[in-house]
Amino acid sequence: MLPTPDTSHVAYERVYEPAEDSFLLLDTLSSPSETSFLQTRFYVSPASGTPTPPEPLVVEIGPGSGVVIAFVTAHASTLLGTRNILTGAVDMNAYACAATTETVRRAVTSNPATASMAFLGAVQGDLVSPLRDHSVDVLIFNPPYVPTAQLPSREELPDGGRIDTENAFDEDSYLLSLSYAGGQDGMETTDRLLDSLPRVLSDRGCAYVLLCAQNKPEEVKERARCLGGGTWKVETVGLSGNQAGWEKLQIIRICREM
Amino acid sequence: MKVLSLNFLTCAVKTCKTQSDSYPLHPKDAELVQDDIELNEAFLINLLPRIDWKALSTTATELGFPALPSTPPTPEDLRADAKTLRDLHNLLLETQMVEGKLVCASCGHEYAVREGIANFLLPSHLV
Ligand SMILES: [Zn+2]
After folding, report:
1. C-alpha distance from residue A183 to each of A109, A149, A180, B36 (Å)
2. How far apart, in whole angstroms, are the C-alpha atoms of residue A87 and residue A98?
3. Of A19, A238, A248, B108, which has the most beta carbons under 10 Å away?
4. Is CATH 3.90.370.10 the classification given to domain A20-40+54-147+182-256?
5. InterPro entries of this UniProt entry (chain B) (predicted)?
6. Three-class DSSP category at A60
7. Residue B39: closest CA among chain A residues belongs to which residue?
8. Whole-angstrom distance, CA of residue B54 vs CA of residue A74
């Protein structure tokens, strides 16, 4: 087991605390089958005589505490075969961006022999909207997947949507609800992310997306296959140990044909 | 946020995605800090093919760095030119923008950067 990044500095009243879904992502990304997939796709040993491909950019959308992207950044050479990767993150929540930056800093400091030195930063934004077309090689998304009547909205706040310090509790609960409330089938945000994959993934790009049973994973996978006109490969690459509960989780890997 | 990240970021406004002047974003009132990071020649050489050189040249000039060569250096150029390697390493990896704004030349929107975090959330009339 690779060490899990330290998130003891994170204020969990406004940033999602690492939970079963986060740990399933860590287990999946470090599983022998996924490290082998990633290394085959993105890394060529200099000893092979073939030119090394350009460094892959790994971006996590909605990192929360930053535990997953810090894990990838800190264990870059174990997971991707080389320390020479770029990483970054986008989150709606400014506190999550700050928490992620610190979690990555700590994890890199604790794992100097395997870490990437090129964490670009965390920016505040809506999903992939600030990212350039075809820039992302590996996208990681642990979405707000819990089915809810509606998506969180600032307009629902009692004073008509303005956030100020007297409303700190409302703001904290708004920020936390962003991290789990998924609307219809828990898929409203994930659907938007899936729709943006053809724009943002590079020619060799792939995406890891976490789903729960209520998201109707088989339907999601079928829809994801059609993103590239039916040529994209979509597989379940991780399953949570707790298969009895309704909230059983899985990770799907969506990838462009190379 | 590292200066390198500006090469991967663009205006979040949907209608700007097809406008060529929405990229790169233009730093304004930028406050920079320098980290001390070990230089990795192989990393920089393999980074160049995925850098938009024209955008990087614009960013470098606007941040007050010396002008970059008009065409990207080849791997051979870089291996033979310690100074260019050092300058690129400093610009791309060691320099962080911590305060200021990033401005879209297409729609004029200014994205604030505070404590190293740029805010790309749009006001509702621009979504
Ligand atoms: Zn714009």
Report:
1. 38, 6, 9, 45
2. 15
3. A238
4. no
5. Trm112 (IPR039127), Trm112-like (IPR005651)
6. strand
7. A117
8. 31
CA pair distance B28, B104, nearest whole angstrom: 11
Closest of A61, A82, A59, A65 to residue A16, by C-alpha = A65
Contact B47 A117 (CB under 8 A): no
Q: Are strands A118-124 and A86-91 parallel, antiparallel or unpaired?
A: parallel
Ligand 1 centroid to Cα of residue A228, in Å, is 27
> Taking CB atoms and an 8 Å limit, are B50 and A129 in contact across chains?
no
Using alpha carbons only, give the angle A34, A35, A36 rounded to the nearest 5 degrees. 85
Architecture of the domain delimited by B3-126: Single Sheet (2.20)
Summarised one tens digit per residue, pLDDT across range A3-21 is: 999 999 999 999 999 999 9
Task: Give chain A positions within 8 Å (CB) of B43.
Answer: 55, 83-84, 117-118
- CA dist A200 and A82 (Å) reads 23
Q: Closest by alpha carbon to A75, among A34, A42, A112?
A: A112
Helix, strand, or coil (residue A8): coil
Cβ–Cβ of B120/A118 closer than 8 Å? no
Q: Where are the domains of chain A?
A: 20-40+54-147+182-256
Listed in sequence order, the residues at least 6 apart from B59 whose beta carbon sits closer than 8 Å to its beta carbon are B3, B6, B7, B24, B27
d(CA A113, CA A131): 29
The nearest alpha carbon in chain A to B97 belongs to A121
Residue spans of the domains in chain B: they are 3-126
From first to last of its 127 residues, chain B has per-residue pLDDT tens of: 999 999 999 999 999 999 999 999 999 999 999 999 999 999 999 999 999 999 999 999 999 999 999 999 999 999 999 999 999 999 999 999 999 999 999 999 999 999 999 999 998 888 7
Residues of B in contact with A119 (CB under 8 A): 2
B122 neighbourhood in chain A, CB within 8 Å: 126, 129
